[in-house]
Amino acid sequence: MGDGTADKLKGHAKEATGEVTGDDELKREGKVDRTSGTVKDKVGDAADKVKDTLK
């Protein structure tokens, strides 16, 4: 599992916990973690494509 996937899972967990407990700050942290995970995945995919092109 890549870094991005781990961040997205962590984000989902924080959001769900924030929703259940009414903690808006935790929900926001979860959204940030999910977004960070998505960005990491996209950057990693782009880097892989560049590496493949250079080979």
Tell me the β content.
under 5%
SSE string, helix = H, strand = E?
HH
Radius of gyration: 14 Å
Distance between the termini: 25 Å
For the sheet with most strands, the description reads:
none
Structural class: mainly alpha
Overall shape: rod-shaped
Low-confidence stretches: none
In total, how many beta strands? 0
Overall domain count = 1
Mean pLDDT: 93
Overall description:
It is a single chain. With 55 residues, this protein is mainly α. The chain has one domain (3-54). It contains 2 helices and no strands. The longest helix is centred in the last third of the chain and has 31 residues, at 24-54. It is rod-shaped and about 50 Å long. The model has no long low-confidence stretch (mean pLDDT 93). Pfam families: CsbD. Residues 1-17, 24-55 have a biased composition (Basic and acidic residues). InterPro entries: CsbD (IPR008462), YjbJ_sf (IPR036629).
Give keywords:
single chain; 55 residues; mainly alpha; 2 helices; 91% helix; CsbD; CsbD family protein; YjbJ_sf
Topology:
Elements: H1 3-21, H2 24-54
Helix pairs in contact: 1-2
